[in-house]
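Ops channel
N.P.: pipeline sanity check, posting one input/output pair.
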């Protein structure tokens, strides 16, 4: 019997090996109709071993190799990457019903199917609709909101003057000021830049967004969160998010609920409470409730604090590298606005070069798309950089050239392909607020100051730090007051 076992052992080993190879091939081969992509996927890993921490260079390479629609496996999950303006527009606008759902991933599970960021379908549409109606009521895109932002800009300019032209890292102060705009909309109040509680929470937001990039792997290997320790920042992100929500954001909501009076719509929370009461009184089935309001507050606070402040910091980085852009902006501001009054949204159309400088900056069902069959629950990644950095659309796309948005007549032009806030149903809810902030801050900052590198001439790096946002590396800058005396 021992001799028979010895003879059978190689055969068993061979059979086991063949079975494993067959299972691997069946689990990683592309089903017919899928977009092309890199070669065979590895067991468990898929194609993740081919990607660096920053996947964008590899995505650009694969676009050149496989075309505007390609697919890969991240772990065992099928991912389809969309490239180019026409492809992304066709998916997100023409096929919005199929492409607007959030993928079933760990990252969106944190949102517990609430608010806007982590919802899909009917709930997403209702939350987005109500939120936009409230934001418009509060002045989104109108002068009433612009005037509130201008008041915050004036506080920011005073804080800049206090540094007396000395080298300073402006990132935290800029985040505090930008955050005050969303706090004013949400809570009806602002915070002082040196408020220790406020600055602590802003630091926690930044740390959370930076740490969250480490949780990306859990979208494809959710079982990793059960490993000992916290290798992927899972526990850290959950802990910080929970702390911000329960000790800073939730008390704001509780205070509004306690002091709410009928018909009060003075800020987002009060206006949403009115919507809750309307739906309760009508008896209709709805997702407009306190749980979703709490998540919306978190969605808007995180997004409204970090993204626009990051864009302003990048603008400062680029104008240090291209001082002639700053000089052109200042000359235009002098000509259109003068030096005695602050720039306003009424000046925006005439400040074409300033605005050009600001601009330079999961499937719900099976769907046939671009000749390919994409199965339900496929994760779809619209690669916006493929549009914004497309050399066929933009001359020298990686160069900082505001002139690309100035037409032959000297007026501002906005090509359809300029989609930094995405497009379709997932278009950023805060787009008009962000555009307003960027214009008013940068125009007023350049009106009051000439921005220079430190005395040693050290320019900031053009390479950023990739997290949930792409932020500039730490840098110091001098905000040197211009010679004219200006009114705030």
């Amino acid at each position: 019997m021992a001799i028979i076992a010895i003879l059978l052992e190689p055969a068993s080993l061979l059979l086991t090996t063949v079975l494993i190879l067959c299972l691997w091939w069946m689990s990683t081969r592309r089903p017919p109709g899928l977009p092309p992509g890199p070669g065979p996927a590895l067991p468990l890993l898929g194609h993740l071993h081919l990607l660096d921490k920053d996947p964008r260079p590899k995505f650009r390479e694969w676009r050149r190799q496989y075309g505007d629609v390609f697919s890969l496996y991240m772990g065992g999950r099928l991912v389809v990457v969309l490239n180019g303006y026409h492809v992304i527009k066709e998916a997100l606008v023409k096929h919005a019903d199929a492409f607007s759902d959030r993928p079933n991933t760990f990252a969106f599970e944190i949102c517990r199917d609430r608010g806007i960021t982590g919802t899909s379908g009917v709930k997403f549409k209702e939350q987005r609709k109500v939120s936009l109606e409230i934001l418009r009521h509060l002045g989104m895109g109108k002068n009433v909101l612009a005037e509130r932002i201008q008041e915050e800009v004036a506080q920011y300019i005073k804080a800049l003057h206090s540094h007396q032209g000395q080298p300073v890292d402006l990132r935290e102060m800029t985040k505090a000021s930008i955050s005050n705009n969303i706090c004013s909309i949400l809570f009806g109040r602002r915070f002082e830049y040196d408020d220790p509680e406020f600055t602590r929470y802003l630091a926690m937001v930044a740390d959370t967004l930076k740490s969250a990039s480490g949780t990306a792997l859990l979208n494809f290997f959710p079982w990793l969160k059960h490993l000992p320790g916290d290798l992927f920042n899972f526990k850290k992100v959950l802990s910080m998010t929970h702390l911000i929500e329960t000790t800073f954001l939730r008390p704001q909501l509780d205070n509004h609920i306690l002091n709410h009076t009928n018909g009060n719509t003075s800020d987002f929370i009060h206006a949403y409470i009115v919507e809750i009461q309307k739906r309760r009184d009508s008896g209709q089935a709805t997702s407009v409730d306190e749980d979703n309001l709490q998540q919306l507050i978190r969605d808007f606070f995180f997004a409204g604090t970090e993204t626009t402040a990051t864009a302003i910091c990048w603008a400062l980085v680029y104008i240090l590298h291209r001082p002639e852009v700053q000089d052109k902006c200042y000359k235009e501001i002098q000509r259109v606005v003068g030096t005695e009054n602050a720039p306003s949204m009424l000046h925006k159309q005439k400040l074409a070069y300033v605005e050009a400088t600001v601009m330079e900056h999961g499937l719900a069902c099976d769907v046939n798309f671009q000749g390919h069959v994409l199965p339900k629950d496929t994760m779809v990644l619209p690669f916006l950089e493929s549009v914004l950095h497309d050399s066929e659309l933009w001359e020298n796309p990686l160069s900082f050239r505001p002139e690309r948005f100035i037409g032959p007549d000297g007026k501002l032009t906005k090509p359809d392909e300029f989609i930094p806030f995405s497009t379709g149903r997932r278009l950023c809810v805060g787009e008009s607020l962000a555009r307003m902030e960027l214009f008013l801050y940068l125009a007023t900052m350049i009106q009051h100051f000439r921005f220079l590198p430190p005395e040693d001439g050290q320019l900031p790096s053009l390479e950023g730090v990739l997290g949930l946002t792409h932020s500039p590396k730490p840098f110091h800058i001098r905000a040197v007051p211009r010679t004219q005396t200006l009114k705030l």
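N.P.: looks fine end to end. The CA atoms of residues 309 and 472 lie 11 Å apart.
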